[in-house]
Amino acid sequence: xxxxxxxxxxxxxxxxxxxxxxxxxxxxxxxxxxxxxxxxxxxxxxxxxxxxxxxxxxxxxxxxxxxxxxxxxxx
Length: 75
Description:
The protein is mostly helical. 53% of the residues lie in helices and 0% in strands.
């Protein structure tokens, strides 16, 4: 299918999922890369306390805090 036909079907609200190869789909800039960070023990205790209060894993809390900081710095 040519791009114009795909766009036409999409714009008309037609189902275009059959035309997509979803097994190879990925979210741009959402790939994961592992990093190791050393924290002082007092900070780990504080992170664990806050994570427990929020009911989320420590890693999720760290990601949220860093993302908030980055967004704040961009503003």
